[in-house]
Amino acid sequence: MRVDLFDFDLPPEAIALRPARPRDAARMLHVAGGAPLADLGVRDLPSLLRAGDVLVFNDTRVIPAQLEGQRGEARIGATLHKRIDLRRWQAFVRNGKRLREGDTIAFGAQVTAMAEARHADGSWTLFFPGEEPVEVLLERAGRMPLPPYIAGKRPTDAQDRSDYQTMFADKDGAVAAPTAALHFTPELMAALAQAGIGHETLTLHVGAGTFLPVKADDTLDHQMHAEWGTIDAETAARLNAVRAAGGRIIAVGTTSLRLLESAADESRTINPFTGDTSIFITPGYTFKAIDGLMTNFHLPKSTLFMLVSALMGLETMQGAYAHAIANGYRFYSYGDSSLLLP
């Protein structure tokens, strides 16, 4: 499909620079197949789902994966986006043309990395020598990797260390938050449980590739970056049992959705899964694992706006986004939410 079909005018001021406080005070646009759009709030979620439904959250934890350093006189910026092994990460590098294989980059006084290999897409493999886990080094030298649409408007600060982490964050490895889950609080989870709505978790370590613009003119020519994820056998079995009992599987965030769809087969069975996924969902895709999606508002011509258009229909989502913009909804990572029920 032509990428320009997914373009729309988004005022810069619509991109939220801070989250709602408290988190579950955010607005939520209810988009249901055939029904009028409804302006609601995240706290209305228990009344919009049914007893027996299950929400699926991503329990990845964002690491401080943005580094600023020096290679001689050259300033080098690095955003780690995919773990290769215990001491190696693939990274997008700013000023990477100044690097040669074997160069050492000093990220402050205590953390160094070797530029080990350059990839075809311009990213680099960085090797972090030493005995301490790389995550410990990142806590010492790194910053939270806010999306460029926020970081370009204000500096990252101490508040982002907590703001850009969900209440489910447990397993280190993401360089972008599964932002739909940022809206959840213990109070909201208690209300959902009281309404008979369950929840499960999976892990997808979100990579910085999620922020890359689609530069191709046709979706067929866009290359998705791979991300590592896992769904264990017990979780897969419980989710299949939910659907067999007539409940719905509602993905919280596009990251949960993409991993669930990667794990599902043509019979709509969710299988255990561990490995990389680079699934790219565009209109025409047949969903096998999920019955709905809670997600924030995405940017024009992004792979994520293509995904929600695949779920609900492009015309429906164009109308929903026009409504959201006209009514002052806040977009992107720290923005408001939508509940999409086809």
Automatic annotation (TrEMBL):
Alphabetic keyword roster: Cytoplasm, Queuosine biosynthesis, S-adenosyl-L-methionine, Transferase
Record flagged with keyword Cytoplasm: yes
Pfam families the record matches: Queuosine_synth
Annotated localization: Cytoplasm
Documented EC number(s): 2.4.99.17
Reactions catalysed, as given in the entry: 7-aminomethyl-7-carbaguanosine(34) in tRNA + S-adenosyl-L-methionine = epoxyqueuosine(34) in tRNA + adenine + L-methionine + 2 H(+)
Associated pathway: tRNA modification; tRNA-queuosine biosynthesis
Organism domain of life: Bacteria
Keyword Cytoplasm carried by entry: yes
PANTHER family: S-ADENOSYLMETHIONINE:TRNA RIBOSYLTRANSFERASE-ISOMERASE
Function per UniProt: Transfers and isomerizes the ribose moiety from AdoMet to the 7-aminomethyl group of 7-deazaguanine (preQ1-tRNA) to give epoxyqueuosine (oQ-tRNA).
Complex and partners: Monomer.
UniProt record similarity statement: Belongs to the QueA family.
Protein's UniProt name: S-adenosylmethionine:tRNA ribosyltransferase-isomerase
Gene (name only): queA
